[in-house]
């Protein structure tokens, strides 16, 4: 399998007053297409920074980041935006839905940004993905009319509707109760298996971590451990 | 692209709804601003239109031409300064006419001269004598005895008055002299002399008795000398209310109706009019208003102004009528004084009685149509110049009847103007040459003036004892002088005579009233090329301070608009900045999932524009509604002076297309401007902001 994500000697430093905080420190990481990877570690270990770099919403201070073979270092902001739109899907800890749009419109939004599809094609895509996340009956509900779990499902649908190569999720279950959280991870895993979409998500919840096929542990901005999860396909086999 | 725009519009709309308090707040300001603009511009345009119609149609024409050599600003309706401004002059109007008529688009050109003149209204005796003189000339057997009786009545009253005066006046000698001549004129012997030699008897009354009567009132007024044949044709506000327009080629004067009502009307009648206007039209009260009650007190003492004009028979009739009307007994003087003691309650009854019963017996106006008026003007060299002209009629400026600005202008033919202005006409030059001949006047050069005047033997021609009953009329043929005046009055002149000569300014009427600016340029060019030292201004400039007033109103509206929209701008910017900060996560998320900067920017601009345009449209609709309503019922001029600005007693504002477009443009620009600051903030929001949200 080719590497969909490649990080080589990636460091990220932030200024914090007069100090410089090194959030990531010489990280090397390669993720293959179709992996279901979790980035684990305590708060402040650099999980979110790593996801931001992979998600092209932040730029590495040192080292190179390659997404689907393309180095992001020299890309313009507009090109990065297009890269995010076409190759990446995002699931946020706080769901980040557009509050004034209903479920259908929220999911359709990235397709509208992409352009190129007819309304019929868009509607078909939206319906398919919404069915997959189990919200077919809520198409016209606004986010505030949905529960936390339902909202996160909408976010998942929105992330997947463009059929991206990679879906990034930053603590997707942090704001959900454990039952709902598990259901969300199950859904993601299901989609990973069926659609072969690469998932990279961060968490510090051990039960969520346990669902991953690969666990990358970060401590103080460095990879402390990169191992197989309990549920890796081989383990089941 | 369309679908993307649609979702952005949707987001913008939904955001406006979601933050409805803010939307209503900001929207209201824009609604107010747009309403103000639409209503304001409609009012201004309508006032502008009304005033332009008033100015153009009364005196201004579309363009005015006057000398570029004058020292003062030209102002059709008079400047703020008293006295005649020096606006230079157009020495030969025919040259200007030739140039102007050669310019395409000029419909008509009229010479004008605006100046001040005075006229003195005749006293009662003078008036009766004038009528008697006419009756004698016409050998009117019916009128002569009646007028004789009236004059004798007046003389009786005059004697009575002088006797009373003799007790209080210091100059007793003069009063005694007056009493002497009045008593002589009352004798039967005098009137037998009248029967045999009426003109000499009239002369005595005119020159010896009349000076002891109360003097007539002097009026000071503006007048416009112009081509009275063309004037009514091209000035559509001009409307004859009595008599006729001065016939072509004739000398003549026309009163402005308002001026005549205000200044020429009988004192008592005028007071009745004013009281009725104050009480009925304005709802004021004689009892409560000190100015009105003072007017009534003054009026009640003016019964003489009525009795002077009555014959004995009329006086008897009126006495009987008043006794019946008032239910009181007394002399006519007492009855009239009582009748003229007006209160709020009896005003209307007495007003009606006055006009129905008293007015037909007296002259309501000092001057009537058909009378001859002696106009006096100060010539440029400072001499007083008098010209007699016939009053042909009374006119008014339609719609501007109650405006003092428009109502103060009387009109006269151009030749009379020139004479009053002090310019020699051919006939005057001849007359002057005759006088020089007669008195042996010689031109004396400055160099040998002394020798000429004092060098020779200077024998006193004739010693006259000043106390020796000097008669200034001795040796003067008064009849031939009168005939000369009459010949001027009846003189006919032709157009060439009118054209070849002086005018102070000139009104130009255009074929296309919309083409004022280009025609001004064309005419200026033509005039310059012809080498005439004249300048061309539009009616607004020519209207002077009146024209500037509307400029002031425009400025006021502009300032109000600017303030409103400045406030709107600040409020919108603030609220959008707050909105931007509140929506950092949402915008960050959009950016993260692939929205370009331009897309989120567009979304914000759309939101501000939608609000601006919708609120602007609502404001314009409200404004239009207000104007439609006011346009149908009309806005009454709050003061008579305002009728001039309103172009009539009521202003019917109409929506102005330019105003609507301008309003929309302003709202659009303000909305767009208001997005600048928030837009800068929006584009600074990084996609990473999406990650910072915590619920």
Largest sheet of chain A: 6 strands, mixed
Structural class of chain B: alpha+beta
> What's the overall geometry of chain B?
elongated
Q: Give the number of DSSP strands of chain A.
A: 10
Largest sheet of chain B: 10 strands, mixed
Beta percentage of chain B is 5-15%
Describe this structure in words.
The complex is a heterodimer of chains A (about 240) and B (about 700). Chain A has about 240 residues and is an alpha/beta fold. Chain A has 8 helices and 10 strands. Chain A has helices at about 45-55, 75-85, 105-115, 120-130, 150-160, 180-195, 205-210, 235, and strands at about 5-15, 20-30, 35-40, 60-65, 70, 90, 165-170, 200-205, 215-220, 220-230. In chain A, helix 3 (about 105-115) crosses helix 4 (about 120-130). Chain A is globular. Residues about 230-235 of chain A have low confidence and may be disordered. Chain B is an alpha+beta fold and about 700 residues long. Helices cover about 60% and strands about 10% of the residues of chain B. In chain B, the strands form 2 sheets. In chain B, strands 1, 2, 3, 4, 5, 6, 7, 8, 9 and 10 form a 10-stranded mixed beta sheet that branches. A two-stranded antiparallel ribbon of chain B has the order 11-12. The interface of A and B includes residues 48, 84, 93, 109 and 158 of A.
């Amino acid at each position: 399998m080719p590497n969909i994500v490649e990080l080589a000697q990636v460091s990220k430093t932030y200024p914090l007053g007069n100090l410089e905080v090194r959030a990531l420190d010489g990280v090397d990481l390669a993720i293959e297409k179709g992996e279901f990877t979790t980035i684990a570690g305590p708060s402040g270990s650099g999980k979110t920074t790593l996801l931001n770099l992979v998600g092209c919403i932040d730029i590495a201070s040192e080292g190179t980041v390659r997404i689907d073979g393309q180095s992001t270092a020299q890309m313009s902001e507009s090109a990065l935006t297009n890269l995010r739109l076409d190759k990446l899907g995002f699931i946020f800890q706080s769901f980040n839905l557009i509050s004034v749009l209903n479920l259908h419109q929220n999911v359709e939004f990235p397709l509208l940004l992409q352009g190129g599809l007819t309304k019929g094609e868009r509607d078909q895509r939206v319906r398919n993905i919404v069915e997959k996340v189990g919200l077919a009956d809520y198409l016209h509900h606004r986010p505030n009319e949905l529960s936390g779990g339902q909202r996160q499902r909408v976010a998942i649908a929105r992330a997947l509707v463009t059929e991206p190569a990679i879906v990034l999720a930053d603590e997707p279950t942090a704001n959900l109760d454990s039952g709902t959280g598990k259901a969300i991870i199950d859904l993601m895993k299901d989609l990973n298996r069926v659609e072969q979409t690469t998932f990279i998500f961060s968490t510090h919840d051990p039960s969520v971590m346990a669902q991953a096929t690969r666990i990358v542990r970060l401590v103080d901005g460095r990879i402390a451990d990169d191992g197989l999860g309990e549920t890796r396909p081989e383990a089941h086999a | 692209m369309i679908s993307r725009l649609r979702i952005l519009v949707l987001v913008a709309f939904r955001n406006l709804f979601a933050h409805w308090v803010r939307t209503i707040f900001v929207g209201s300001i824009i609604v107010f601003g747009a309403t103000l603009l639409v209503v304001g511009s409609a009012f201004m345009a309508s006032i502008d239109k009304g005033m332009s119609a008033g100015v153009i149609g009364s005196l201004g024409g579309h363009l005015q031409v006057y000398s570029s050599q004058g020292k003062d600003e030209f102002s059709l309706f008079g400047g703020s300064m008293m006295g005649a401004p020096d606006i230079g002059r157009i020495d030969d109007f025919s040259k200007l006419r030739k140039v102007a008529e050669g310019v395409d688009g000029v419909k008509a050109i009229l010479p004008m001269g605006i100046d001040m003149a005075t006229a003195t209204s005749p006293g009662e005796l003078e008036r009766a004598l004038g009528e008697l003189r006419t009756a004698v000339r016409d050998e009117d057997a019916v009128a002569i005895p009646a007028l004789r009786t009236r004059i004798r009545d007046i003389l009786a009253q005059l004697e009575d008055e002088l006797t009373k005066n003799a007790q209080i006046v210091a100059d007793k000698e003069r009063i005694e002299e007056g009493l002497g001549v009045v008593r002589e004129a009352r004798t039967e012997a005098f009137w037998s002399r009248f029967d045999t030699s009426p003109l000499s008897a009239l002369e005595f009354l005119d020159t010896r008795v009349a000076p002891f009567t109360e003097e007539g009132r002097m009026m000071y007024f503006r007048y416009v000398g112009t081509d009275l044949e063309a004037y009514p044709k091209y000035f559509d506000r001009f409307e004859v209310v009595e008599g006729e327009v001065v016939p072509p080629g004739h000398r003549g004067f026309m009163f402005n109706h308002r001026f005549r009502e205000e200044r020429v009307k009988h004192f008592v009648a005028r007071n009745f009019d004013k009281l009725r206007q104050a009480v009925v039209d304005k709802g004021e009260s004689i009892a409560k208003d000190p100015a009105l009650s003072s007017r009534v007190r003054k009026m009640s003492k003016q019964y003489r102004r009525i009795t002077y004009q009555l014959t004995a028979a009329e006086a008897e009739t009126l006495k009987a009528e008043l006794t019946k009307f008032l239910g009181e007994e007394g002399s006519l003087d007492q009855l009239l004084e009582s009748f003229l003691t007006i209160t709020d309650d009896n005003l209307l009854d007495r007003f009606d009685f006055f006009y129905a019963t008293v007015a037909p017996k007296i002259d309501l106006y000092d001057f009537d149509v058909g009378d001859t008026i002696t106009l006096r003007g100060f010539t440029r060299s400072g001499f007083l110049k008098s010209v007699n002209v016939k009053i042909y009629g009374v006119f008014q400026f339609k719609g501007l009847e109650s405006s003092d600005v428009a109502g103060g202008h009387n009109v006269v033919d151009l030749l009379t103007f020139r004479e009053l202005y002090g310019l020699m006409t051919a006939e005057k030059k001849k007359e002057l040459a005759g006088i020089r001949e007669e008195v042996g006047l010689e031109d004396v050069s400055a160099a040998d003036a002394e020798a000429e005047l004092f060098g020779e033997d200077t024998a006193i021609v004739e010693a006259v004892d000043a106390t020796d009953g000097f008669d200034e009329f001795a040796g003067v043929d008064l009849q031939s002088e009168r005939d000369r005046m009459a010949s001027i009055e009846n003189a006919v002149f032709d157009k060439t005579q009118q054209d070849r000569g002086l005018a102070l300014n000139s009104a130009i009427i255009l074929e296309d009233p919309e083409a004022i600016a280009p025609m001004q340029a064309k005419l200026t060019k033509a005039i310059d090329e012809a080498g005439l030292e004249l300048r061309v201004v539009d009616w607004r400039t020519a209207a002077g301070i009146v024209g500037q007033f509307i400029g002031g109103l425009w400025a006021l509206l502009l300032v109000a608009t600017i303030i409103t929209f400045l406030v709107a701008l600040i409020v919108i910017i603030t609220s959008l900045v707050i909105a931007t900060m509140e929506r950092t996560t949402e915008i960050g998320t959009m950016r993260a999932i692939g929205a370009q900067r331009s897309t989120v920017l567009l979304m914000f601009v759309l939101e501000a524009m939608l609000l601006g345009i919708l609120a602007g449209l609502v404001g314009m609709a409200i404004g239009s509604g207000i104007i439609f309503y006011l346009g149908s019922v009309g806005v009454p001029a709050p003061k008579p002076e305002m009728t001039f600005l309103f172009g009539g007693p009521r202003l019917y504002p109409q929506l102005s297309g330019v105003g609507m477009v301008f309003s929309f443009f302003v709202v659009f620009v303000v909305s767009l401007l208001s997005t600048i600051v928030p837009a800068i903030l929006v584009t600074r929001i990084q996609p990473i902001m999406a990650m910072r949200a915590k619920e």
